[in-house]
Amino acid sequence: SLINHERHYTKARYTLDDYVEFSNSIGQIKRILPDKGVLDDALLMVTTNHSHVLRLR
């Protein structure tokens, strides 16, 4: 995902698309873990080096 890069260049549409793609990826992981039988043993950690907030104006 290029969320940080898109925000620096004020490409709002691309930033929003990246947020949606990121959210969908997390959702897919959350669906796969139970199917594999490893949900109880899994730790899903998402980190960032920035604390940007998506603001729609």
What do you see in this structure?
With 57 residues, this protein is mostly helical. The protein has one domain. Helices cover 54% and strands 0% of the residues. The protein has two helices and no strands. The mean pLDDT is 79.
Topology:
Elements: H1 3-8, H2 12-36
Summarize this, please?
The protein has 57 residues and is mostly helical. It contains two helices and no strands. It is elongated.
Shape: elongated
Percent in helix: 40-55%
Class from secondary-structure proportions:
mainly alpha
Distance between the termini: 22 Å
Given the structure, what is the number of helices? Answer: 2
Quaternary structure of the protein: single chain
Features:
0% strand; 54% helix; mainly alpha; 57 residues
